[in-house]
Design a protein that fits this description.
CATH architecture: Beta Barrel
Distance between the termini: 38 Å
Strand content: over 45%
Order of helices and strands: EEEEE
Mean pLDDT: 84
Number of domains: 1
Low-confidence stretches: 72-81
Structural class: mainly beta
Radius of gyration: 13 Å
Number of helices: 0
């Protein structure tokens, strides 16, 4: 089930996984969603998305990225920098 979203609203999301074929799994309002990414994103990256459309298909646009990823893909979790 989708979280309560409104067209034009902006929401923080986190990239949970890169699925391949231009798709990413994001966590939006606590709900995991698979989305097609039009720009390169990295696992752990925090983004701010704007809802462009809800029906018939949810369309989100990345407004901006927020800092560095919380987990770097090139380093295993728990490895000191």
């Amino acid at each position: 089930m989708l979280p309560a979203l409104r067209v034009g609203g902006t929401y923080p999301a986190r990239v949970a996984r890169i699925e391949g074929d231009g798709r990413v799994r994001i966590i939006l309002e606590g709900t995991p969603l698979v989305a097609r990414a039009e720009r390169p994103l990295r696992r752990g990256q925090e983004v701010l998305v704007e809802v462009e459309r809800i029906v018939p298909t949810l369309v989100l646009r990345v407004v901006r990225t927020v800092g560095e990823p919380t987990v770097r893909e090139e380093e295993p979790a728990g490895t000191p920098s």
